[in-house]
Structures are given as C-alpha cells and as structure tokens.
Amino acid sequence: MDCLFCKIASGDIPARKFYEDDQVIAFHDIGPQAPVHFLVIPKRHIPTLTDLTEADKALVGHIAYTAQRLAMEQGCDQGFRLVMNCNEQGGQTVFHIHMHVLGQRQMHWPPG
Ligand code: 5GP
Ligand code: ZN
What we know:
Layout: H1 4-10, E1 17-20, E2 24-28, E3 36-42, H2 57-73, E4 80-83, E5 99-103
Antiparallel strand pairs: 1-2, 2-3, 3-5, 4-5
This protein binds guanosine-5'-monophosphate (5GP) and zinc ion (ZN).
C-alpha cells in the first residue's frame, strides 16, 4: 500500500521513532510546530477518523492514553495539546490517522 505512515510503521521509511508497542508507534514530526511535536499512529492502516468502526474504540483510547503518557515523558508536565485533523477541511494531509502531540510552548485558542 502506498501510504507514508504505513511505511514508517514498517520501517521502510526512516523516522525518529521513539515508542512502539503491539498497536501503535510514536515518532517526531518532520516539521515540528512546537519544541515537542510528535505523532502517535496505529500500526494498522486507517485512512481517516470517519473510517473508524465500533471495534476501533479501544484503539483510539490507547492512542490518546499513549499520547499523554509520552507527553509527560517528554517533559510536558505544564500542559500539551492533542490534535487529530480529519479530511481536507480539517487540515489532514497524511491519510493514515495520527494524533499530534504538541508541547513545551504556550498554545492559543482558537487554532488556525
Ligand atoms: P496532518 O496535516 O495530516 O494532520 O499531519 C501530518 C503531519 O505529518 C505533518 O505535521 C507533517 O509535518 C508530518 N509528516 C509528513 N511527512 C512526514 C515524514 O516523512 N516524516 C515525519 N516524521 N513526519 C511527516
Ligand atoms: Zn497507512
């Protein structure tokens, strides 16, 4: 399958991967928007959030749980932001679901 994040998950394309378990991996974003900016992705290819099924509810919980745990390990104890962009108008550019974790700077609201 021609998917960038599947290739990162399989190791075919290099990335600064720093966490892996049976369901997810985490790696640093290539274009960081904050001092801490990494992505948590499922190993399984799911194009966008609207492709999730009932059976994926635990996986999404695991992604969020892992994201916060890794954020704390990266020193984001003052706070951090989790973002999942969905489809074109939501700003999604890579069509394999991923949770952004941004931290170590002040976040603002609303996002652009
Ligand atoms: P999206 O816009 O889909 O929510 O987020 C995609 C993210 O993937 C962007 O923040 C972008 O910088 C990141 N990204 C795109 N290509 C690569 C890559 O080859 N390696 C890494 N580590 N990140 C990437
Ligand atoms: Zn994929």
